[in-house]
Amino acid sequence: MLLDAKNAIVYGGGGRVGTALATAFAREGAKVHLAGRTRATLDAVAERIRADGGRAETAVLDALDEAAVDEHADAVAAGSGSVDISVSVIDVADVQGTPLVGMSLADFERPVRIATRSTFITARAAARHMVRQRSGVILTFGGDGGGEPIRDYAIGGFQVALGAVDVLRRQLAAELGEYGIRVLALHTGGITESLPEDFGAREAITDMIVGKTMLKRAATFADVGNVAAFAASDLARSMTATSLNITAGAVTD
Predict the structure, then answer these.
(1) May I ask which residue range the UniProt record assigns to the signal sequence (predicted)?
(2) What is the residue extent of each domain of the chain?
């Protein structure tokens, strides 16, 4: 198995992306530590992993609370022996559908603050243990990595937030590389499965996402989990400071 004897922390582990990542890590042999704010959703994912023969633990915490994140990472390292993989996919609570010029400052700032703060806090907590281990993988998630604005839909501060996280990811990779720590992004260009059935703009956004791809389909949650497991494994040991393009050809590198 690709991740045998590894410990992975997934912040936002009760969400749909978090579930995809956690189940893929567990399938490849990692012990998954699910962290989030809602006990019921975390326990449901953990039970699913255990039913499939995997290992999972849960912790209720807010990824924006640095003391709680630090304490949890310390507990994982002490109890399980290491922190090998860390990824935050918490909801950034963005407001979409409103043009930037009609948006309040608070609504614009919210996703930027949540995305950068949670990424920084969780990456720092993991890196403190990874430096000692001289190994580890930090993953970020979201966007298409292409640097182009979304022209056909008002996406608020979300795209700005993803851009900020990408810069943070590159800087972390530059500073942590000497300790054997890799930092990678997963760029999907959008997962149409994630759009609620009752979302008014669902069809338009699906068409926009799929229409940009060469494969005429979007990445699935399963695709994300499979690529993340590869990225976190030793098969990708020479990859850092870059993104894994799973946009189905929406972005060319």
Answers:
(1) none
(2) 7-245
Residues 6+ apart with CB under 8 A from 118: 11, 63, 64, 88, 90
Q: What are phi and psi of 92, to 5 degrees?
A: -90, 0
Kindly report the pTM of this predicted structure: 0.96
Tell how far CA 162 is from the center of its chain: 11
Question: What fold characterizes domain 7-245?
Answer: Rossmann fold (3.40.50)
How far apart are alpha carbons 59 and 38 in whole angstroms?
Answer: 9
Residue 120 one-letter amino acid: F
CA distance 118 to 89: 9
| Nearby residues of 36 by Cβ (< 8 Å), 6 or more positions away | 11, 12, 13, 14, 15, 18, 42, 60, 61, 63, 90
What's the pLDDT tens digit per position in 196-228? 777 667 887 788 889 989 999 999 999 999 999
Q: How far is CA 175 from CA 66, 74, 127, 162, 184, in A?
A: 20, 21, 10, 20, 13
Helix (H, G, I), strand (E, B) or coil at 86: strand
Q: Strand, helix or coil at 42?
A: helix
Q: Is the dihedral of CA 156, 187, 28, 132 positive or negative?
A: negative
